[in-house]
Amino acid sequence: MAIPVEGETIQIHSYKHNGRIHRVWQETMVLKGTKNIIIGANERTLVTESDGRTWLTREPSICYFHAEHWFNIICMLREDGVYYYCNLSSPFVFDNNAIKYIDYDLDIKVFPDMSYSLLDEDEYELHRKEMSYPDVIDKILKRNVDKLISWIQQKRGPFAPDFIDAWTNRYKFQLDMQADDC
After folding, report:
1. CB burial readout 91-122, b (16+ within 10 A) else e
2. Is 123 annotated as a binding residue?
3. I need a surface site. Which of 1, 60, 127, 159 has the fewest CB within 10 A?
4. Annotated binding residue at 105?
């Protein structure tokens, strides 16, 4: 598997279990790339939905992907604090200049005060039946909901107090470096 290079611009491709594209984020800057972790950042990037509709993200975001965890985490930097959107998903692969993963519907939204809500349980149950998610996937995803909640409560990984500052500073540094190259 190729590894993206720091400062490189890549795409993010979200698929559904049936192999159909779900959503594409056009541009994300790589802040860290290893075989297991990709941390990226984007701001006002074009997002294309499976039905062709498009929209722009509203705020800067730090994106955390791991090749061994069944979730990814988007840290949205808003005026009133950091909001986290956690997608229960397959571990990522990096292919053809894009992070690719399967979105499994369940999401956890985390608020600046670290309270959280599990979202889209109905959508998950509907798609689990429609797309015949195997029982093993169901068990893995439910275990990873518990793992994510544990991370939130323990302020681990992207929920750690210094994570946002470190990666936001890295993003600003990369933007400055690119501006200097122009």
Report:
1. ebebeeebbbbbbbbbbbebeeeeebeebbee
2. yes
3. 1
4. yes
Q: Report whether 103 belongs to an annotated binding site.
A: yes
180 annotated ligand-binding residue: no
Options 20, 23, 58, 156, the catalytic residue? 23
Q: Note down pLDDT in tens along the chain; length 182 residues.
A: 689 999 999 999 999 999 999 999 999 999 999 999 999 999 999 999 999 999 999 999 999 999 999 999 999 999 999 999 999 999 999 999 999 999 999 999 999 999 999 999 999 999 999 999 999 999 999 999 999 999 999 999 999 989 999 999 999 999 988 888 76
Euclidean distance between CA atoms 85 and 173, whole angstroms: 24
Examine the residue annotation and report whether 23 is marked as an active-site residue of this protein. Answer: yes
Record the pTM.
0.96
- Residue 41 contacts residue 69 (beta carbons within 8 Å): no
Asked if CATH classification 2.40.380.10 holds for the domain at 9-163, the reply, yes or no, is: yes
- Which among 60, 62, 56 is positioned nearest to 78, based on CA atoms? 60
Q: Which H or E run includes 91?
A: none
